Amino acid sequence: MGDESMAPIITVTALCLLDRRGRLLLVRKRGTTMFMQPGGKPEPGETPAGTGARELTEELGLTVRPGDLALLGTWRGPAANEADTLLVATVFLCPLTGEPVPAAEIEELAWLDLGDAAGRRDLAPLLTDFVVPRLLAKGREP
Description:
This protein has helices at residues 48-60, 125-140, and strands spanning 9-17, 24-29, 39-40, 70-78, 86-94, 106-112. By secondary structure, the protein is of the alpha+beta class.
C-alpha cells in the first residue's frame, strides 16, 4: 500500500493560531487521539482561506475574514486519522480574535509550546513534519 499515487487524497485548510506566549492552538476531534490544527475540508467552490474562516467559526466560535489569513505554506503528507491516505494542506497564520471554545466535532483544545513538539507522539504528522519547523524558523527570521 506504500504507493502514494494510489492513496486517496484529502484536501484541507489548517490554521495556526498563536497566543501571546507563542503557543500554537491544537484541537482533537471526537473519537480520535491525535491533536492537529483547527480547519477542515472545503465545501464546493470555496477558497482555502474561505474554508479556514468558516471552519474557525464552526469549530471554535471565532470570527475572521478570509483576508485576515496569511499563507504559511502548502504541504503533502500522511493523514493523521485516515490510514493510507494522503493529506494536502494549505496552512494559514490566523489572528486569535477571542477565546476559542470547542464546538461541532471538537472534543478538546490544547496549547502547544513549539519547543515541546518533538517529544510528543499525539501530534498529527503535518504538524511535526512541516508546520512546527516552519513556525520555529519564522520565529528566528529577522
